[in-house]
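Quick start: what a row looks like.
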Amino acid sequence: MTAEPFLILGADRPSRWLITCDHATNRVPACVGGGSLGIAPADMERHIAYDIGAAGVTRRLAERLDAPAILSDFSRLVIDPNRGEDDPTLVMKLYDSTLIPVNRQVDAAEVERRLQAFHRPYHDALESLAARRSDTVICAVHSFTPRLVGRAERPWHVGVLYSHRDPRLALSLLARLRAEGDLCVGENEPYGGHLDGDSIDRHALTPGRPNVLVEIRHDLIRSADGQIAWANRLAPILEAALAGADL
């Protein structure tokens, strides 16, 4: 692998915000399975491979906030940058009823190789951006599928995820999103907001940086127009939430 496994946008932008996108792409580098994980192309376009629409929202949101952004450049099925190195779901072998053939025989040596090639460089770059100023605020952008296989439809338009260790910004954001009136807002939905070793734990909670994770239902941001609309809507709300949290 010769290219960096991440993309940084606006490294010199002055805002204290840092926008992150852990699951920006479905790319499988050639050094992993010859560029294929052995699943159908249609499955690589599903949420199991990446957070659909999240990269576009991240780009536009960072522009609106005049903030730097970092986006992964490898599929979470290669190795998940939003998991700690000791997490059993770091390299998924089965995801939402789909087997990942190339990952089925992954051993400790291959996990270590992927950590060195993708996971650690991404986190090193993220931490360098976060450390550029002492008052950095992290907003992680994710998307979620409207429905997992065999499960009920998810009603939320957007979810705000946070840890009990630092709910300040998230609670301020929740109040403002709920005040919009036309949104079904999930609080630590569709997932719980605390996971030891994940990106927020590592780069925000442990060093004491204010933070929030935003999950947008991906059918709302699959198109470029939807991505722009959501970023434009979220930017002033995030700014108001930060001011209201007095951080």
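That is the whole record. The chain has a mean pLDDT of 96. Strands lie at 6-9, 17-21, 69-72, 94-95, 98-99, 137-144, 158-161, 185-187, 211-217.
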